[in-house]
Amino acid sequence: MISRLSAFFLLTAALLPAASQPSTSDPSWPVYGHDPGGSKFSPLKSITPANVAQLKPAWTFHTGDMFDPHGKGGRKSAFETTPLFIDGTLYLTTPFGRLIALNPTTGEQLWAFDPHANYSAGFGDLANRGAAAWRDPSSHRLRLFVATIDARLFAVDAASGKAIDSFGQGGSLDLRKGLRNAPHYFSEYEETSPPAVIGDLVIVGSGIADNGYVDAASGEVRAFNARTGALAWTFDPLPGSKTGGANTWSIISTDPARKLVFLPTTSPSPDYYGGLRPGDDRDADSLIALHAETGKVAWRFQTVHHDLWDYDIASQPTLFTLRRHGKEIPAIAVGSKTGNLFLLNRETGEPLFGVEERPVPQSDIPGEKTSPTQPFPILPKPVAPQSITAAGIWGPTPEDRKWCEDLFAGKRSDGIFTPPSLQGSIIFPGNIGGMAWGGAAFDPQRGLLILPTNRLAALVYLIPSDKFDAEAGKMPGFEYARQRGAPYGMARTFIRSPKGLPCNAPPWGTLTAIDVSTGLVKWEVPFGSMPWLASLPGVDKLGSPSLGGPIATAGGLVFIGAAFDPFLRAFSTATGAELWKAQLPAGARATPMTYRAAGKQYVVIAAGGFDIPGSSQSDTVVAYTLPDSTP
User: Fold this and answer.
1) Model pLDDT for residues 354-373, shown as the tens digit of each residue
2) Relative to the CA of 565, which of 107, 258, 453, 581 has its CA 20 to 30 Å away?
3) Rounded Cα–Cα distance for residues 222 and 226 (Å)
């Protein structure tokens, strides 16, 4: 199992100036999260609650890039790109790392760049979430950066679609070189997220396979000169350690005005045993603010101490402005798989609503020393449940509930941060959250953070290493990992009945709006559905886990795919009411985007399906717009 999942430059004819908020007439989407702080907010407002029901498909595009290993190791490709719209052209990436330019009104391909990535090597997360852009201040030429699954960084000329030979070695850099801990095997180290760009630097994290080794590949984040590819600085979250991981595989945010870079780091290696990495594990599971020019730490905030649960910061940090007592406070929101959402001062890392260290359950595993406390925000309250009691065990029939009750019996279940154990531990939220990689959107007009949450319990066993070979594979539906070098391997699964129904009570996915001025929930609604449960009464109220994020618009709408069902939906930002949905060729495991071209607003999403039973696979990009006659 892999540990999952660019500065905003308002492109003018000259340079991309640093701007914290886009112009109200800006038609573009120049960065993965629309702006450097990842607000995923567009000022476009042609599509409104009054007319959104009239949205129709405008065009579709097929990339042709799909991969299925057919049982040979690794996963199916996941189509997770969020396109960029810059200077009248749409740019998207495929799971194979191909970069494609499209006409934004017709979907016609203009050019395609193929890095010839080794995508069949058995990677745990065969995805690419998008590209990043930089304009050379001397030549004014736009170049695009794409990091491929096989860990190479390419610079591509946006006009021609050709690699820029003056960057790195013939247009690319090998990101496997120069690490403190080299990968043990090829597919251990990968790239799935777009780089960040700030000033003349392109900044890259990495994805690292979980639970293979104590000394897994190390999680350095590196900055390179955007023109030449020369290394500018390296940040190692675990310096002087044999421990790997603590990498940044999610989206990096930046604050160009303050020259800060914000890294969401992940769990150290291996996830489920920490006896060989004592202490808090420094900068793992932390939001790290770096000075962009030097890579030196400005401040740090750790969301989980001594992680034993794969509780990564999986989502992009979201920059926003908090208005309090007549003052404007530069702020940042960071959520993790725990379901805790921390609102911090962007300049200092200080909590805006307070954080307290609370006692948590302790490990009974020899050699393990659990952190005695963990940080909890006073506000907002957890955005997902963090414990499950006997009353919370669920099943649609008495037989289903009895099966789940029997499964829970004898397992350790002490609420959030229950340590892994030999008898089996209930982990709630499980290892897809809480908050997954889709992250939040921020509507500055309403002061709302809108975010999807997952609500699935997991079951984790530790297995003594001398018994691992005999035990591995005995429990159907479990994922096994050896954790080489540690005295324990692990087995984990999401807790479901034989019918495939979660054993915790629904909803299993929600969409939640947080008022950042108060830290309180403005609204919360069940989100999505699981297609194989269509016969259950009230299936639309049960919710679905989601992988993918929302966007918000000045028109008062939130657009999101992400659920297991094959729909793109629009919700009212003010109330959370679902106003529109359109069926896609497959599920949309991606974050949408919006832009204006030829006087019309478009909403675009990649529909690639999910790596779950019954989900179709697709390579389709779908664009929606209003009919010409719409008022």
Assistant:
1) 999 999 999 999 999 999 99
2) 107
3) 12
* Residues annotated as part of the active site: 310
Considering Cα of 96, then 97, then 98, then 99, what sign does the dihedral take? positive
Contacts 24+ apart (CB under 8 A), 170-179: 172/115, 173/224, 173/229, 175/147, 175/151, 175/204, 175/206, 175/222, 176/151, 178/220, 178/222, 178/231, 178/234, 179/217, 179/218, 179/220
Domain 325-457+495-598 classification at class level: mainly beta
Mean pLDDT of the chain: 93
Which single residue is written with the structure tokens 């996963």? 75
Query: What spatial distance separates the first Cα and last Cα of the chain, rounded to whole Å?
Result: 49
> Is pLDDT at 434 greater than 50 in this prediction?
yes
Confidence (pTM):
0.95
Residue 380 main-chain phi, psi, to 5 deg? -65, 155
What would the mean pLDDT of 462-467 be, rounded to a whole number?
A: 98
Give the pLDDT band (50/70/90) at residue 15: very low
- In angstroms, the CA 84 to CA 558 distance is 18
Q: Which of 132, 175, 163, 101 lies closest to 36 in space, CA to CA?
A: 132
3-state secondary structure of 60: strand
3-class secondary-structure state, position 496: strand
Please list, in sequence order, all residues whose beta carbon lies within 8 angstroms of the beta carbon of residue 140, skipping any fewer than 6 positions away. Answer: 13, 14, 15
Here the tokens at position 263 are: 């890294």
- Burial class, 240, CB count within 10 angstroms (exposed 0-12 / middle 13-18 / buried 19+): exposed
What are the residues facing 285 on neighbouring strands? Answer: none
pLDDT band at 440 (very low <50, low <70, confident <90, very high): very high
The share of the chain scoring above pLDDT 70, in percent, equals 96
3 state DSSP class of 134:
strand
Nearest residue to 563 (alpha-carbon basis) of 432, 416, 375: 432
Q: Which amino acid, one-letter code, is at 139? A: S
Q: CA torsion sign, 307 to 591 to 45 to 26?
A: positive
Q: What is the pLDDT of residues 154-209, one digit of tens each?
A: 999 999 999 999 999 999 999 999 999 999 999 999 999 999 999 999 999 999 99
Stated length of the chain:
631
Which tokens is 249 given? Answer: 């595989």
What are the residue boundaries of the structural domains of the chain, listed by start? 325-457+495-598
Per residue in 498-532, pLDDT (tens digit) is: 888 899 999 999 999 999 999 999 999 999 999 88
Query: Is the pLDDT at 320 greater than 70, yes or no?
Result: yes
